[in-house]
Specification:
The structure holds two protein chains of two kinds. Chain A is an alpha+beta fold. Chain A is 40% helix and 17% strand. The chains are: A alpha+beta, B alpha+beta. Chain B: InterPro entries: BBS12 (IPR042984), Cpn60/GroEL/TCP-1 (IPR002423), GroEL-like_apical_dom_sf (IPR027409), GROEL-like_equatorial_sf (IPR027413), TCP-1-like_intermed_sf (IPR027410).
């Protein structure tokens, strides 16, 4: 007998942001993000505490996937950062830190949330307008006719995660590979709607990073290939190899119904009849002159044997992720059922060879002209490999986003400080009509704008993890770093060398001042300038699209969180 | 003395240290999320728990460093079973490593083992040495980023610097051949020494003591270093005469050999002298027993007696083995066989996939040898079948899966809802299993198969029925063995017997009982060793014999280590001079680096990010000293383990002395190479052969060594840069309700 329990009433929490536990969790979350930020960021060991694998990372995507946040307020935050990361890959920590910092700063202001929201929306539009305008002093345009800026972009992504454990040579090597892989995916002959190809990452763990390489075409791991035997593959008249692609299982078990029961007479073997059907497919393939059969799943050993005897190469267990690029590369249509094989399904391939990487053997499918390539990625340890894979994917994605919008933002904290000084300058020179439109006083506007600028600067300050000082200059509004342990000096120009992004050197007196978190910073006279010399190599650059999106997501999420007045929790 | 490790480890020393750190309540470090910011900066400044865990775990492995290793017993307290180990891999395998740092350490060691099978002890030791050196840096308030950048750049620079010490294999071969010892003069001496030491009652007594009452305390380590070394030296010394002497006096791996009565050893060595060579390696052009052409009886591959005629690679194997004698003789045979074949194939590398091992328990170690083909153990019933096969050319079948009725190929999903309806029950028909058995047997009989090699397991009933029908079924057999047989016999591996067609079976296999070199009958109780061979097969089996059960794993490990060392030396095409030469050059190079001024960041093409900028000079020299201390401790512990120095302190002074001399002479690399040429890098010799002065050099693998360094440093730096543990899953709730929950923060 079942017992009915009365429903519990929902829990009603008003003003969740004023609650102590929520504040502490927010502080903790913000600390996790801030301590992980940048090339000198600290790593987090994610594990289950009972001997599961250890993930060492400082990446927002990995952190957020493992963090289980109990407070619904914070879940809003983590969800929107995760959403941003899934769209842009890059600037996840930037978004998260900025968002936490905005919430902290605005909460302590004595301004009604709705006013704050109106003002921040205005600030956001100031920022985006500035970033999108030609006059923007913190962006560089990306020239796709040379590799320099692209190299800078990729290198900045690769060096931003210390858990990859790369040294300088390795960074340079991988930068070249990632760029090469990206260029493979750009179609040579552009038609009306050009589509970028795909780079498939092949894992080889436990090897030197320098063993990594990029190959055009696809690699499928095969344990059974015997080395030393020449590959004899049947070719068509035009010396191409005819290929058939199966996404259906060919292991001979497809008679098993999903539900319901099959009754068979004793002595009838479903397995045998299924195998016979498979062998008939094999006969058809041989008859059609197919030279290579690739199956996503398993091929029955008897069918394999039959194909081999008829000089047809069979490769199975290609995996789901390879099917789309395989089909695209060879022009073949994946056969979804062994009964629906038709000559129209076949594709073609230029060549097949065997590649040996470390202790693994791969069948290398070489197409004639392709936008598909494979990046064989090696790293010494499992945990560093996982981090490196995520970083390479991010770099690839950043290049794709940059192709759509050929701009990049100065990295190393310079965009943040530059934008902050721009907003400080701009907000001090707004007309009174703006305040009337927003329905706020100038003081309120100044307070919110200052909170916004401090939040931006706190992102730049989060790059520093080892003591030392963070400076900003009064000319370009860039971010400068003074390492700790230096004897105290009277003049900052004695100790600074280059700004965070590397574009400005210590050549003129830029009247540096310490970037502090609390006090209101002095407003610079006039708009922060754009650096006069535009060096293009060895800059730290950030993805334009990702950072703009991050800025927007952070502000909107902060607004949403600030605006929360009730949390209603279902307790059943 | 070593820290005591318990198994299974309820509170291992690492955890204990960690807890004692936490007990002072300064550092609530292991957190659900992350500690207070000030608190965790404190962790980094004073005592980084991850690094402490690493150094305390690593300290257990220092006895495995260098050519003179001490064995350890790992005792499982719950079952009272103990295991004898002598390598870092086995040590790490036996420890319960649930801490995150411990797990990363385990992963690192396993990866090194998988690729190189050597360098794991070096790796483990350096992890420990570098973590404690880094902790010292933290205590002097050196920022983490400075430690990371200076250490990794310092190691890179050292790895580049030591490249000048690399010696190409070609030069090594020349060197080894020319510095060969005069055989005659040595023969007597070596023999004398060998007999002396083997018969030495003190040695015998000592060993008995060693096995009867080892210092077993939870996990004990037989680290009686002083005595140990004398003992080992005595045993190892006969090998000095390698080549000629080696065939006279058996090189005995180590102390267990003294279990065998001395007379036995000498007897066997005399026999050996008479036995000479197999037909494959007859240096005289014909061997004593090669009367019957193409017979398969003299399958025991013997190393040539004269080192000049034996391959140069044999010497190289010797020089790389660092006194690990077990494999050297076997290696020599393998190398010769593969070289002979390589002349046809045109590749000079050692093919590891063409070698398998078979461990025989119950014979003295002197019976270890390399046999052509595949040696494995079968039941006495099957052995009878083999007697029947004598000299017959067999039809062979290779099965690429299990040989059971239930077995289906990988990826086949068993149907759950198929019901079979029996319309006309036939009471006479046997059970379903019987029909499968007889069907399989019918297939085998109809194709006249004599021998089936199965990759997976074999159904017991089928095995018995086959044996009764004089079909030999052997499984499980490694994949490489199947491939080798497939290649020479033309047999095609099948997954099911029903796939069989005439082209699948191969012909030309021979099977016979394996015999020891002196024809000694094999009585190993339940199982009988047999040898399966095909003319021209590339496959070799290293038969490792031992009378001590606990040494089986040990010998196998040692054999593979030696084989991989040679393999990688050939693959790299070069080796490092051994005996501490490389480490000494690193130390001198670090002195040079310390004196270099800190490069101004503005100059030249540099990384843009000032966040990774070169740190101030004061930190740089501190961190470089930390890097150097790793190698310095390495050298001094090796010297201590070899009893070249009475204490680590004195060893360190010795290292400093040599370092000073190397630096003073202007060109440290030339100085070190000269020392190495004289066979005397760190004074008083450094190899296991040191007692016999010049001539016998030791070499190290290039890639294995530098990779071990890099992996060790990577691990230390990875842990160093970690500031928090995030524990997910059910353990989180457990922690929430546990008394230590105050050390954690919960989101």
């Amino acid at each position: 007998m079942s017992r009915l329990e009365a429903k519990k009433p929902p829990l009603f929490i008003s003003e969740p942001l004023t609650k102590d536990t929520v504040c502490q969790s927010l502080l903790l979350l913000s600390r996790i993000f801030k301590s992980s930020y940048g090339p000198a960021g600290r790593l987090k060991q994610l594990h289950n505490g009972v001997g599961g694998c250890v993930c060492t990372t400082s990446q927002s995507s990995a952190l957020l996937r493992h963090l289980s946040v109990s407070s619904p307020v914070l879940r809003v935050l983590t969800a929107s950062v995760q959403n941003h990361v899934s769209r842009c890959s890059d600037c996840g920590l930037f978004t998260a830190i900025l968002c936490c910092s905005l919430i902290e700063n605005f909460r302590s202001l004595n301004v009604a949330p709705c006013t704050v929201i109106k003002i921040t929306k205005n600030l956001l539009s100031l920022c985006t307008d500035y970033l999108k305008s030609e006059a923007c002093g913190c962006r560089v345009s990306v020239d796709f006719s040379s590799v320099e800026t692209l190299v800078c972009l990729v290198r900045s992504v690769l060096t931003s995660k210390p858990a990859c454990m790369l040294n300088k040579t390795e960074v340079e090597h991988l930068t070249t590979l990632v760029l090469k892989a990206f260029l493979f995916t750009v179609p040579c002959h552009v038609e009306t709607n050009a589509v970028l190809g795909k780079c498939v990452i092949i894992p080889v763990k436990g090897r030197r990073v320098m063993d990594s390489t990029v190959l055009p075409g696809l690699l499928i791991e095969t344990p059974e290939i015997q080395l030393g035997k020449p590959l004899a593959v049947k070719r068509t008249g035009s010396s191409m190899i005819k290929i058939a692609l199966f996404c259906a299982s060919m292991s001979g078990d497809s008679f098993s119904p999903e539900e319901g029961t099959i009754a068979v007479r004793h002595g009838t073997s479903l397995e045998m009849s299924e195998l016979n059907q498979l062998l008939n497919v094999g006969k058809q393939l041989v008859h059609d002159g197919v030279g290579l059969v690739v199956c996503q799943k398993v091929i029955h050993p008897a069918l394999k044997q039959y194909l081999k005897e008829n000089h047809v190469m069979a490769v199975d267990r290609a995996g789901l992720s390879l099917m789309e690029p395989l089909s695209r590369m060879t022009g073949s249509k994946p056969v979804a059922s062994i009964h629906s094989l038709s000559p129209g399904c076949y594709g073609s391939l230029k060549d097949v060879s065997i590649e040996r990487v470390a202790s693994k053997h791969f069948v290398h499918l070489i197409p004639g002209d392709t936008v598909i390539c494979s990046l064989i990625l090696c790293n010494r340890s499992e945990t560093a490999w996982d981090e490196l894979k995520r970083v390479c994917e991010t770099a690839e994605h950043v290049l794709q986003l940059t192709m759509k919008e050929p701009l990049a933002l100065l990295g190393g904290g310079c965009t943040e400080t530059h934008l902050a000084s721009y907003i400080r300058y701009k907000s001090s020179s707004l007309s009174t009509s703006t305040f009337q439109d927003l329905g706020c006083s100038q003081t309120q506007y100044q307070l919110v704008a200052d909170g916004f600028c401090r939040s931006l600067e706190s992102v730049a300050r989060s790059l520093n993890h080892d003591g030392g000082e963070i400076l900003t200059d009064m000319v370009y509004g860039h971010c400068w770093f003074v390492p700790s342990g230096l004897p105290s000096v009277s003049n900052w120009s004695d100790v600074v060398s280059k700004c965070g992004c590397g574009i400005n050197g210590n050549t003129e007196d830029l009247s540096w001042r310490i970037l502090e978190g609390q006090s209101c910073s002095p407003v610079i006279q006039g708009c922060p300038k754009e650096p006069s010399v535009k060096v293009t190599d060895f800059l730290t650059l950030d993805c334009f699209a990702a950072k703009c999106s991050g800025l927007q997501v952070a502000l909107e999420t902060a607004n949403l969180v600030l605006d929360l007045s009730y949390v209603i929790e279902d307790q059943n | 003395m070593f820290p005591l490790l318990a198994w299974p480890v309820p509170s291992q020393p690492a955890a204990a240290t960690a807890r004692s750190g936490g007990a002072q309540r300064a550092v609530p470090r292991r957190t659900r999320c992350c500690p207070l910011p000030m608190a965790f900066r404190d962790v980094n400044a004073r005592r980084h728990i991850g690094l402490q865990q690493l150094s305390s775990l690593a300290s257990a492995g220092r006895a495995f460093l260098g050519p003179m290793k001490s064995h350890k017993f790992i005792v499982d307290e719950s079952t009272n079973q103990s295991t004898l180990i002598c390598s870092a891999v086995r040590l790490i395998e036996s420890l319960d490593l649930t801490s995150a740092a411990g797990q990363l350490l385990n992963e690192t060691i396993q990866v090194q083992n998988k690729e190189f099978k050597t360098g794991m002890s070096t790796l483990l030791f350096l992890v420990g040495a570098w973590s404690s050196a880094v902790v010292e840096c933290l205590q002097q308030n050196v920022p983490v980023s400075a430690i990371v950048s200076v250490m990794s750049e310092g190691l890179n620079s050292c790895c580049e610097r030591v490249q000048c010490l690399q010696i190409s294999i070609h030069d090594v071969k020349k060197e080894l051949c020319s510095s060969r010892v005069r055989p005659n003069a040595f023969e007597c001496k070596a023999c004398q020494v060998g007999c002396d030491s083997l018969l030495n009652p003190r040695g015998l007594l000592y060993f008995q003591k060693c096995i009867s009452e080892p210092e077993v305390i939870s996990i004990s380590c037989c680290s009686h270093q002083g005595d140990d070394c004398h003992f080992n030296k005595g045993l190892v010394s006969p090998l000095v005469g390698f080549g000629s002497a080696a065939s006279l006096v058996k090189p005995e791996g180590d102390r267990s050999s003294s279990v065998i009565p001395g007379s036995d050893v000498i007897a066997s060595s005399c026999i050996k002298q008479k036995l000479t060579h197999s037909r494959h390696f007859s240096t005289l052009g014909k061997s004593h027993f090669s009367g019957q052409q193409g017979n398969f009886q003299e399958y025991l591959l013997k190393p040539s007696a004269d080192p000049c005629e034996c391959s140069d690679l044999g010497h190289l194997a010797m020089a790389l083995s660092h006194g690990n004698q077990t494999g050297v003789k076997l290696l020599q045979s393998i190398v010769e066989y593969q070289q002979e074949r390589a002349e046809c194939r045109g590749s000079s590398q050692l093919n590891i996939t063409e070698v398998v091992t078979c461990s025989l328990l119950g014979l003295p170690e002197s019976y270890s040898c390399v046999s052509q083909g595949f040696v494995t153990l079968v039941s006495p019933e099957q052995a009878k079948v083999i007697k029947h096969f004598k000299d017959k050319s067999l039809w062979i079948l290779l099965v690429d899966g299990d040989l059971t009725e239930q077995y289906r190929h990988l990826g086949f999903n068993r149907p759950h809802n198929v019901r079979t309806i029996l319309e006309h029950p036939n009471l006479e028909g046997g059970r379903a299993g019987d029909t499968w058995l007889s069907r399989m047997l019918d297939i085998l009989v109809s194709f006249e198969v004599n021998l089936v090699l199965v990759k997976g397991s074999v159904c017991k009933n089928l095995l018995d029925r086959c044996t009764a029908s004089r079909i030999l079924v052997i499984g499980p057999v490694p994949r490489d063995v199947l491939c080798a047989f497939g290649e020479v016999t033309g047999a095609q591996p099948v997954t099911y017997l029903s796939q069989l067609n005439p082209s699948c079976a191969g012909n030309g296999a021979q099977a016979e009982l394996w015999e020891a070199s002196d024809g000694r009958a094999m009585d190993l109780g339940e199982l009988v060793p047999v040898r399966i061979d095909v003319r021209g097969i590339p496959l070799l089996t290293a038969v490792l014999t031992t009378a001590v059960a606990s040494k089986v794993q040990l010998l196998e490990d040692q054999f593979w280590t030696s084989l991989y060392r040679l393999h990688h030396a050939l693959k790299d095409g070069k080796v490092f001079p051994g005996g501490g030469a490389v480490e000494l050059l690193c130390l001198s190079h670090i002195q040079v680096l310390t004196e270099q001024p800190v490069r101004p960041a503005k100059a030249g093409k540099e990384f843009p990010s000032p966040w990774l900028a070169t740190p101030v000079a004061e930190y740089k020299s501190l961190v470089l000293q930390a890097l150097a201390s790793g190698w310095k401790r390495y050298l001094s512990v090796v010297m201590c383990n070899m009893a070249k120095a009475p204490s680590e302190l004195e060893a360190r002074a010795l290292v400093d002395h040599h370092l000073k001399k190397a630096v003073d002479c202007g060109s440290p690399s030339a100085y070190i190479l000269e020392l190495f040429r004289r066979g005397d890098v760190l004074g008083g010799g450094f190899g296991p052969f040191a007692d016999h002065g010049e001539g016998l050099k030791v070499y190290d693998n290039v890639a294995a060594k530098t990779e071990a360094w890099r992996r060790a440093l990577d691990l230390v730096l990875l842990v160093l840069q970690t500031d928090a543990e995030i524990i997910t899953g059910p353990k989180r709730n457990e922690l929430l309700n546990s008394p230590v929950s105050s050390e954690f923060m919960f989101l």
